[in-house]
Predict the 3D structure of the following.
Amino acid sequence: MSHEGIRFVSAEEAAQASAQENNRPPAEAVTPLKVRVKKSEGTGIEIEWRDGHKSAWDFRWLRDACPCATCNAERETTGRATGEAKPKSEDPFALYQAPPRPDEVTPVGRYALSFKWNDGHQSGIYSWTYLRSVCQCAICKPPRKG
Ligand SMILES: [Zn+2]
Ligand SMILES: [Zn+2]
């Protein structure tokens, strides 16, 4: 019996193959190289990924895309898309709401960011995988026609 023809698969290749099987993005695509949180400017965050891709979101979008269980359930019942603003209150006496911005942005382990929003909400854990999956650039999210 010959062992010829047996190809040893490196650990890296095996990892890539299993990632493809699970339809997961490659590690470089969900590992940030640089993260810029423009908290003092109040604008948003920018991430440069290890695969060279760049993503940016404004704070309002991120607040409306909060991935916590409560916000997920709310979006499911109202049919609101991830990152889409909630309909404005019709109540003329509704309190003015300051634009969403985080009071604190904290890294969660090495895999996510957590925001403490100025409206007090802070249960969303924004993992790198999640953020990459909601990248708003023209390549990931081509502009809608019409
Ligand atoms: Zn939430
Ligand atoms: Zn993108």
Remarks:
- Residues 11-21 form the longest helix (11 residues).
- The mean pLDDT is 87.
- The pocket of zinc ion (ligand 2) is lined by residues 53, 55, 135, 137, 139-140 (CB under 6 Å).
